[in-house]
């Protein structure tokens, strides 16, 4: 399970990196390839440099093929954003989360009533919960910052908040509106200031080699940002950690099986 988790985190991060890098590379390779063909056309066919230029052309073609494969790979991570009830997502993940955190940690859930619908990929939200639970577990089972490392409580809380221009917190550069809130709180060893400052960076980890990839929070950040939300960390050494995620609430859409259709058909069609 641990190995699968780490693998999933890596794939997600690699996919995102690959997509971004491949796009830029593709543009650069187009410039290289284009100018190369001008130079070759300008030189007489029997020019001594032609063989070397042909070699460069082959290498750049090969690079383009590799980039295409990279792009194909990153696109393979097909996301299917759907209207999701966050409470259902949390309930659905509970069993797995309990298995991840083990016996020494108590899982408490405080699911709000009428928590709104979010538009997100269910698999990605599971990944968010898992990554945060793994971090919480590690923080509660590792002795550090005066914490005994003998367990604790992991709390999952859901609710809804309305942000207007006045109440929007400075850390949440979000448009005014209604947001669904997920809070993941642990009673673990917490973070010092440096760790907190770097925690979301890909590959930043304070865990021993092999134990952490440094991709957990970077992945969480990426997923939440993709869904139009934001994430915040509150943590201090010995004080535990609270992760707060806000996701925009969307109007509930009729589900399959509902009577009536959506979108409403235009008369005469
Ligand atoms: P990893 O867990 O692989 O180290 P993350 O990106 O998930 O990577 O976390 C980066 C670092 O942030 C961790 O190594 C740890 O120092 C710190 N961290 C993350 N979550 C917590 C938490 N709940 N409590 C204390 N420290 C945390």
What would your notes on this structure say?
This protein has six helices and seven strands; from the N terminus they run ααβαββαββααββ. With 269 residues, the chain is of the alpha+beta class. Strands 1, 2, 3, 4, 5, 6 and 7 form a seven-stranded mixed beta sheet that branches. The longest helix is centred in the N-terminal third of the chain and has 41 residues, at 2-42. It is elongated and about 75 Å long. The protein binds adenosine-5'-diphosphate. Adenosine-5'-diphosphate is lined by residues 131, 135-136, 139, 186, 188-191, 195, 199, 204-207, 212-218, 241. Residues 20-251 form the Histidine kinase domain. It comes from Roseisolibacter agri. This is histidine kinase.
Measured distance between first and last alpha carbons: 51 Å
- Helicity level: 40-55%
Radius of gyration: 24 Å
**Beta-strand proportion:** 15-25%
Low-pLDDT stretches: 254-269
Order of helices and strands: HHEHEEHEEHHEE
Q: What is the typical, i.e. mean, pLDDT?
A: 84
The class by helix and strand makeup works out as: alpha+beta
Number of helices: 6
Number of beta-strand segments: 7
Bound molecules: adenosine-5'-diphosphate
């Amino acid at each position: 399970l641990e190995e699968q988790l780490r693998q999933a985190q890596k794939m997600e991060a690699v996919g995102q990196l690959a997509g971004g890098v491949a796009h830029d590379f593709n543009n650069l390779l187009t410039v290289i390839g284009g100018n190369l063909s001008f130079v070759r056309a300008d030189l007489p066919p029997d020019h001594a440099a032609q063989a070397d230029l042909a070699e460069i052309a082959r290498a750049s073609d090969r690079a383009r093929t590799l980039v295409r494969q990279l792009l194909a790979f990153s696109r393979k991570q097909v996301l299917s954003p759907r209207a999701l009830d966050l409470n259902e997502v949390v309930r659905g993940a509970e069993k797995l989360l309990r298995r991840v955190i083990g016996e020494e940690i108590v899982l408490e859930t405080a699911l709000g009533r009428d928590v709104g619908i979010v538009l997100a990929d269910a698999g990605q939200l599971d990944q968010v919960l898992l990554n945060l639970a793994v971090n919480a577990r590690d923080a509660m089972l590792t002795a550090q910052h005066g914490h005994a490392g003998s367990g604790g409580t992991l709390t999952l809380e859901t609710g809804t908040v309305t942000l207007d221009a006045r109440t929007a917190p400075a850390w949440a550069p979000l448009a005014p509106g209604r947001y669904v809130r997920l809070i993941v709180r642990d009673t673990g060893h917490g973070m010092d200031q440096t760790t907190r400052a770097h925690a979301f960076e890909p590959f930043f980890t304070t865990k021993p080699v092999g134990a952490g990839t440094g991709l957990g929070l970077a992945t969480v950040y990426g997923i939440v940002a993709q869904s139009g939300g934001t994430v915040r960390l509150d943590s201090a050494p010995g004080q535990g950690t609270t992760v707060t995620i806000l996701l925009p609430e969307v109007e509930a859409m009729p589900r399959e099986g509902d009577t009536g259709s959506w979108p409403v058909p235009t008369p005469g069609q």
